[in-house]
Design goal:
Structural class: alpha/beta
Helix content: 25-40%
Distance between the termini: 29 Å
Length: 184
């Protein structure tokens, strides 16, 4: 199945149960990147808008880029009251955003779905000079019995299960390759 279709028909449940990110992290993200209300954040793979909303609450201009219609529609219904919110149908590899127009790129719980090389090229194209990419996850406590049992159930029911978030949390080389020298 094409990855952009995997959440079709599941967006309501996803929206209801996806946890938010710690307020302290959002504050850190804003502070570290010296973000102000006149700058633009692109939330790539924005889904139902969990992180998008947390950024909007901080008075940031956020462009939510999401390829799945169901996910994007929920975000639009929940976030359209924010004047600093823009939603577009695009992928990580082809956002449709203008070159050198973005002050920060965020990716929450979605990086494992992307073609890493093509996404890196797109980041280089759309980011303003000296801007950053923030890859965000809610981490699991793998010493928790509940988390371990959950992983076992997933392994039993889905033969292709490689771990949560596609097993990416165990593969630091993916991050090193993505963030190493921006030159392609």
């Amino acid at each position: 199945m094409e990855t952009t279709k995997k959440f079709t028909g599941k967006a309501d449940i996803y929206s209801k149960y996806r946890p938010h990110y710690p307020k302290e992290y959002i504050n850190y993200l804003v502070s570290y990147n010296s973000l102000t209300s006149d700058q633009i954040v692109a939330d790539i793979g924005s889904g139902t808008g969990v992180l998008t909303q947390q950024l909007l609450i901080n008075n940031l201009n956020v462009i939510a880029v999401e390829p799945n219609d169901d996910m994007r529609n929920i975000a639009e219904k929940q976030l359209n009251s924010y004047s600093n919110f823009v939603s577009i149908n695009g992928t990580a590899e082809s956002t449709g955003l203008k070159s050198y127009s973005i002050d920060l790129i965020t990716v929450a719980q979605a990086f494992h779905w992307f073609d890493k090389l093509q996404f890196k090229k797109e980041c280089i194209r759309i980011l303003k000079p000296n801007s950053n990419v923030a890859l965000v996850w809610n981490s699991r406590d793998f010493s928790s019995k509940l988390v371990i049992e959950n992983a076992e159930i997933c392994k039993d029911l889905c033969p292709s299960f490689k771990g949560f978030s596609g097993g990416i949390e165990k593969n630091s080389d993916v991050y090193k390759q993505f963030f190493s020298r921006w030159k392609i």
